[in-house]
Amino acid sequence: MSWQVLASPELLVLAAAALTAVLLVLASALKLYASVGKGKCTSSADMRGKVVVVTGANSGIGKETALELAKRGAKVIMACRNMETAEKAREEIARTSGNQQVVVRQLDLSSMQSVRGFAEALRRSEQRLDVLVHNAGYANTFSKQVTGEGLEVTMATNQHGPFLLTHLLIDLLKSSAPSRIVVVASELYRLAGLDVANLNPVRGLPAYLYYVSKHANIVFALELARRLQNTGVTVNCLHPGMIDSSIWRNVPFPLNLPVKAIAKGFFKTPKEGAQTTIHLAVSEELEGVTGKYFMDCKEHQLSDAVKDPNKGKKFWEESELLVKLKEDDPHI
Length: 332
Fold this sequence. Notes:
Number of domains: 2
Number of strands: 8
CATH superfamily of the largest domain: NAD(P)-binding Rossmann-like Domain
């Protein structure tokens, strides 16, 4: 059989049709897989009289979380870096929920100075704090960035800032007990290790450091839960799923094109992705439950790599030094 026969227009059309059919089947299978197991918070818990802080609440799953908690009557404090975007989100949340107790406060988690300023203002304005949701996340793909305080930006935003913020607000959480801390982590933690002797990897590959930060989130949450036993403050972490959100905006052209296409076609919507966070923040069935990891509103198993108490203790000690925790700061 000659090459001309193999490459005839008729055969090329048939091959293209077959390939298209295969791709359509694969796409349908992926879509079906993505739709199965999407957990939904079924709790109808009333949050009136409660005060909630949600970091990164101006977009994505943070915004959806803030909206749902506002609908339930909570006073929602949106802790956001971009005030212009946050104010627009606040107006939308207040209008949609009918709850005017939605407040925007500036917080740049990559800056420990900003974290301290936010915490001080919150302690002055609020008498209680019932739920602290560590939701804000940053993903940098290629360019290395270091803050003016010498911290690698991805790790500072996703882990060091939340670590310091938790310390500075812990007394308020304890006095409001039973209260909750919710840490939005990710299954992507399985793709990375955590060097507790180098929690500020300024020379690391930026894209990989997002995975490292998610690994650190879980080690942090588990150690925090151990340290807060019998205080009335519970700590749980979660994987929200792969979300079609603004976190993919830092993927450069042309890689952003297929990423966006995949996200739009197969990832969860922000509303779907927020369900597990909401579940951990409000569900009555989780009263007293602490030190657990959830996915699709159900408890999920963790790898041994994040569960080692010795690793958690060392991580904690190094983190205190890294964020420059002061003697007169609350310690956990």
